[in-house]
Amino acid sequence: MRLQRPTSARRSSHVDTVTETSTMENGEMSNDAGACRVLNKEVLSKGRWVALNEITYTDPSGKERKWESAERTTKISGESDGVVIIPVLKRLLKYDCVVLVKQFRPPVGTVTIEFPAGLIDRGESAQECAVRELKEETGFTGVVKHISPCTTIDPGLSNCTVKMVTMEIDGDLAENYHPRKHLEEGEFIEVVQIPIDTLLDRLNTLLNNGVIVHSIVYTYAIACAQTAKPKIVIP
């Protein structure tokens, strides 16, 4: 899905003409996205946490275009910006539950349901960040099971990258009986536990009640529903 319409580079003061270097394959212009190149990035505005940039790049035909994008000012070169945690709570004789967080997000003006997540501090590994953020936002102590490579969240809008971290929480451990969050000033987070086998239905109910569900959470719910073993009904 295109989030903005690329514009010609003609309005840039440092570009005199639009140069096209089309590559012909079987009589047709090449559509190889790998041929695109970023030529320049100009900061249009910068706040404490986010900057707005204008990027000059060449499309597959060689034509120069403009794209506006957001970038975290806390970004560390060569590292993921943060982690998104998929925590599963396991307890004896109880359904496995996914642990989510509910909070108000000013950009969308309403409450959202998301996975616990956070920015990686300088000198911190993705694993360390995931363990810390899970404890801070949910109070739970978990074990990291898998860490993904760098992935993008919304590449049409920003260059923000995250590592997806799956974690397992042993709900029968004493420290997880009564978890206590350790939120920073200004954070107001409610922890939500939903059985995995009812996750998609519960999310749909929340959506119908005006709550926005993060697309990563909803995608996870769809995957769980599609891979669930069918229940055997004995007549």
What would you say this structure looks like, in words?
This protein is an alpha+beta fold. It has three helices and 14 strands. It has helices at residues 126-138, 199-208, 215-227, and strands spanning 7-8, 24-25, 28-29, 37-46, 50-58, 64-72, 82-90, 97-105, 110-114, 117-119, 143-152, 161-170, 190-195, 212-213. The strands form three sheets. Strands 7, 8, 9, 10, 11, 12, 13 and 14 form an eight-stranded mixed beta sheet that branches. It starts with 6 loop residues before the first strand and ends in an 8-residue tail after the last helix. The relative contact order is 0.15.
Measured between the Cα atoms of the first and last residue, the distance is 47 Å
Number of strands: 14
Please compute the radius of gyration using only Cα atoms: 22 Å
Tell me the structural class: alpha+beta
Topology order in helix (H) and strand (E) letters = EEEEEEEEEEHEEEHEH
Helix count equals: 3
Unreliable sequence segments: 10-27
Q: Which percent band covers the strand fraction?
A: 35-45%
User: Residue share in helices?
Assistant: 10-25%
Shape: globular
Average pLDDT number: 88
Q: How would you characterize the largest beta sheet?
A: 8 strands, mixed
Briefly, what is this?
The protein is of the alpha+beta class and 235 residues long. Helices cover 15% and strands 37% of the residues. Mean pLDDT is 88; it is low at 10-27.
